[in-house]
Amino acid sequence: MSSGEPLLSSLASHQDSLKPPPRPLPAQSTSLNCLCTNSSFSSSTYEDCETRFSRFSNGEAFTSIGELNRNESDLSQVTGRFHSADSHFFQSFRVECPPEEKPTHHVNWSVMDRPAGDSAIEIPIASTRQDKPNKSQHVRHKSGLQEDPFSSEYEPRLVYINDPRRTNDKYEFTGNEIRTSKYTFITFLPKNLFIQFHRLAYVYFLVIAALNQLPPLAVFGRTASLFPLLFVLFVTAIKDGYEDWRRHRSDRKENNREALVLQSGEFRMKKWKNICVGEVVKIDADETIPCDIVLLGTSDPNGIAYIQTMNLDGESNLKTRYARQELICMVTENLYSGLIRCEQPNRNIYEFTAAMEFNGHRVPLGQSNIVLRGCQLKNTEWMIGVVVYAGQETKAMLNSTASPSKSSNLESYMNRETLWLSLFLFVICAVVAAGMGIWLINHTDQLDTLPYYRKKYFGHDDGKDFKYYGLGMEIFFSFLSSVIIFQIMIPISLYITMELVRLGQSYFMIGDRHMYDASSNSRFQCRSLNINEDLGQIKYVFSDKTGTLTENKMEFRKASIFSKDYGESLQDVGAPLHEITSSGPLTRQSSSKSEISIDSELARLLQRDLVGEERIAAHEFFLTLAACNTVIPVPLDDPFGGHSEARSIEYQGESPDEQALVTAASAYGYRLVERTTGHLAIDVHGERTRLDVIGLHEFDSVRKRMSVVVRFPNNRVKVLVKGADNSMLSILNSDTGNEVNNLLQSKIREATESHLTNYSSQGLRTLVLGSRDLNEIEFKEWQEQYEEASTSIHDRTAKLRQAASLIECDLTLLGATGIEDKLQEGVPEAIESLRQAGIKVWVLTGDKQETAISIGLSCRLLTQEMQQIIINGTSESECRRLLSEAKERFLIRSGDGIGRNGSMKGAYDPKMAHVNDDSPGFGAAPLALIIDGTSLVYILDKDLESELLFELATSCKVVLCCRVAPLQKAGIVDLIKSRTCDMTLAIGDGANDVSMIQMADVGVGICGQEGRQAVMASDFAMGQFRFLKRLLLVHGHWNYQRVGYLVLYNFYRNAVFVLMLFWYILYTAYSATSALTDWSSVFYSLIYTSLPTIVVGILDKDLSHKTLLHYPKLYQAGHRHESYNFQLFWITMLDTLWQSLVIFYVPYFTFSNTCIDIWSLGSLWTLVVVILVNVHLAMDTRRWVFITHVAIWGSIVITFISMVLIDSIPVFPNYGTIYNIGTSLTYWITILLIIILGLLPRFLGKVIYQMLWPTDIQIAREAEILRKIIPKQREMRP
Hints:
Among the domains are: 180-253; 493-507 and 1035-1276, no CATH class; 518-548 and 824-1025, Rossmann fold (3-Layer(aba) Sandwich), CATH 3.40.50; 550-820, Calcium-transporting ATPase, cytoplasmic domain N, CATH 3.40.1110.10. Helices cover 41% and strands 17% of the residues. It has 38 helices and 45 strands. Strands 22-45-44-43-23-39-42-41-40 form a 9-stranded mixed sheet, sandwiched between helices. The chain has a 9-stranded antiparallel sheet with strand order 25-24-38-37-36-35-34-33-32, with helices on both faces. Strands 11-10-12-21-13-19 form a 6-stranded antiparallel sheet. α5 (200-212) packs antiparallel against α6 and α12 packs antiparallel against α28. The longest helix has 40 residues, at 1027-1066. It is globular, with a radius of gyration of 37 Å. One of its GO terms (cellular component) is plasma membrane. Its main location: membrane.
């Protein structure tokens, strides 16, 4: 610098020469020591000269807490304070739990996006339950004689600092003792049984067992009928008891930990469970926070504390929390007093709204001022805070409940078939009851001589005589007895089997090394065990762009300054490169240094003296980049002991965009080196300048911009703003009062808009920068409204947004930036494979249209041959017109876009199985729909327009939604989900994707750069988008094939056993007796046939993973419901009917003229039905491993051994049966004949069908076999 003047001073003098000097600020605004408490850093606002704050105390009248008189002495003592109170440092969006009930199809998805009068966008986190205060959340009112003005959950909680007695005097808040255990010694048995019987299966078995205890209905032995239920209850109770004992042990250990608590003027150790709300706690380094506390001070002079939230949200990187500057004096002077008004306990860990009254001032508190229970203090010697939430009311404990899970689509179809089986059960029981009634009319006098009524065993003289209750009661008893015998026709146990199978499938998905992301050290996560099979039927994938398709690692590439485009001459070698250490914002920190490429022409411009409009414009541009952000510079230790000024800096922040901008500013000589409680320091080419931070309005998806109000060393106050182009260009100053200046600004704006279009077409993310000088009146008006908003407990977001509108207007355009966000590895290949698999990929992004189109082309979502339909409407009528014109132009008829599943919410129609996706009559080229968020505001709110959009969108191969807000993403998903039966999947990485993830049938979270909110709300989580290809095409296909077959097989396995018993009853005078022993009937589904079902459901594979990935079209078998549909169910039932007839009648006719007794015949039926169903399973098993052989053939061996043991017990009526019948050759030949005859139709049917109508899967499987055989033959050749 040749001028010899300080950089900012020369700038100020030059600006003063161009415009009249600003009016001096009032005396009361001279003190600007401030504290940033929120997402970046809190900022403060000026205290008004006359401040009155009030409180209610025990019903007393409105009283003044603090008052300042208007006089010079008071004015000189006013302390400024500023705050971006609504926001928090590591979360850009408000996150709250949505209501429990599912959103209806008439939700106004666009209402949150209207700019006027909106509250903050709220995005649900993992749980979808409504926050309902439980007992631990309610305070106990100690006085019942007067109405409590703060009893409502919407009223603030009052916490008196260092006065727990007064705090809990009127409201007895919960203590800090936690209890995660469910039971006590006394309540364990009744409560555990109550919880277990919430399962419908247990209630069903209990009713059956209870009926069997009644003498007229005692079909089985009382012990045998109770054994399955008691066994399951006992095992579950042991498991639950052990788990609860571990919880008790953990609770005792946690509650008896100790912390330093201020008692009688000094800090003393106190057990965690005895800490109360209002007490002051001191935490030393590496200690865990015992409760939710508001920071009052730390060992850092600026009140900064670093915490790790691993136990709370799984994030390992350090986060920054701040003590308000006004409160630090409490710690230094050891005077702890004041009143905190905070919101009621809630589960939102990403927001905190409160205000503190201290020494006559009201200090706003936000999320960055509170440290939550479970966090650990790191890199800070100590911190002191006051308890605001304790025990069960802490956010960690309120979030400890599991979120409700989604239900499987296949399971809903299974429930339909279960109703058919229930109807069939009713019919056969009615047949038995009616037959018995008819038989009794003619044979009442023969009841005592029959061996098969009421357990009067043949050959046992001590059996009870038959008691006749009358015809009507006998028919009723016969019906109930038949229900007991045929009880397994209702496959209640299938739900438990499916849970075990899904658990096993999840184990192998988690362990898949091909879905491990080394860069983030994250494995695949199964967060839901109920929808594994839905992964094999996905028709629509809704994807976020930034951080999902892209790496979310930003690099500054372009800059538009003073109508000139910079960035074309970027140099990696020979340019003055600056090494800046940059860390990931929320997930992990990187210690590697990155080299920033700079534009040599722009670098030379910035080296010149601060003279000339172009140079000043470049100066203000980079000054805004360095100042208008929420990034924290963290100096790194110099291993060589160099001067602190030369140390490397690590930038920590919530937004990768901001990190890239700050890093770029540093590379060009504007280095952010310090951000303290009320100011920031920028090193401009070696000259350090301090700027006081007066106020901060953080980015939100309504305004789509952020701003910071700063005071320069020359006392000039400016607002620096950056945001999306469509948000910023509309608030620029179009009339400066100078015609020449207007012309210049118009030229700059026109060039900037041209550059923005160019940047977007290159796939760059764009931002526009602006600034404005604030005069005394403007500043005071904003300051008053800002202070009121930042200290408000309710509607703080809306009030802050209103305050921002006062200064975010009439801006001077500084320029624009272009940031490159590279695609993740494998994204184009993954999208292409998904498209070949018949999956439609829709991208929902907040980027502008040109950027989204460019990224769409680069990731192969869009192709050059596609015809693009662009909907950019600015009114309801225009949107309707554009949609209608597009439908007419491309000959799209209503119903063209319906899905494969029958489309419009209905049953599956196999005739639709091969309908082409690309249905528009225009037909020559596939269509791509591109629509912006403004249009969606008008479309999603109207039924007619939504229907038009649905018909148009489902007829397109690709849909690209730009500039969409979070709830609009959920609205797009609901548009498809509510109108079709097609399965939807949403994938994203940020908090703004949570609503979309929870709306979809399957939600997938990316462990990315924007925190873990998406992961916490998802059903599955992974490290990279490319893993979605393997998740769906491989694991999704396998899981769907397995579970589909599992359901059909269980229906068959149970029905064949029931029908065998039914045919027998028809030949025993409808007596509702069984030829099988009680224990054989009980063990059939519990031991004999259960294990093979589970093993095959977990391990079977119809095709290898290589084949499934090489031929993505094989995935469409799930779209066609090839593994489970209504036709397959009835074909299975016909096969079941045939096999049951063979099982019964072959032995019946074979042994009709012999002296074989009924127990010998029952022994044969038991053994043959087990062999038959296991051989049936073996015929359909495609992958054989050792454990499969053990499970299938071992079950048959176990069945035979069990029969030998049961027949060896003298007290049983079948004593010795197996020893007699087992020596007969006819016995074994009969078993072999039954198996052959029973399975022959199935075998022939499969062969004929595969020969004449082979499926894609069958063809691929035969190709796999050939590939294995041919190499072996080649090896055998000489």
